[in-house]
């Protein structure tokens, strides 16, 4: 599990990172058990990161849930936490990083991204624009097919109308 730690401050005042509410609701309710405790999860010789709290059930350890969520692409983002305080543009934020997770063995890279989110997700407009564009194309095509249907409807009950070959000997 990822075990780098970050702390943030501005004007010598610490900013609290909220790690509650970072996992998906489906993960908390279905994927990770409320009666499952990680007692024997870390008993092997190879320890790759953070240790889990054995007194807390898995459905309450949101760091683990976020880390275990499979990424679709080789470059991905994992939510570390939320800063619930409003930050201003051009404000200087001091970040203290404790680099514990080894990415050197596989030439991996880590980046820290501070991002603004809303109730529908991040600030990337591409996905919303793509959905609207595809929706408009589908709407225009459906209107085109509807107009063609009303102008030149298909004859009902005449199977010869469906035949491509209308020459002698066709059925």
UniProtKB/TrEMBL annotation:
Gene Ontology CC: endoplasmic reticulum; Golgi apparatus; plasma membrane
Coiled-coil spans in chain: none
Transmembrane keyword on record: yes
Localization, UniProt: Membrane
Chief localisation class: membrane
Keyword presence, Transport: no
Membrane topology: Multi-pass membrane protein
Domain of life: Eukaryota
Pfam families registered for this protein in UniProt: CDC50
Residue intervals passing through the bilayer: 129-151
Alphabetical UniProt keywords: Membrane, Transmembrane, Transmembrane helix
Protein family (similarity comment): Belongs to the CDC50/LEM3 family.
Protein name, UniProt field: ALA-interacting subunit
Source species of the chain: Dovyalis caffra
Organism taxonomic ancestry: Eukaryota, Viridiplantae, Streptophyta, Embryophyta, Tracheophyta
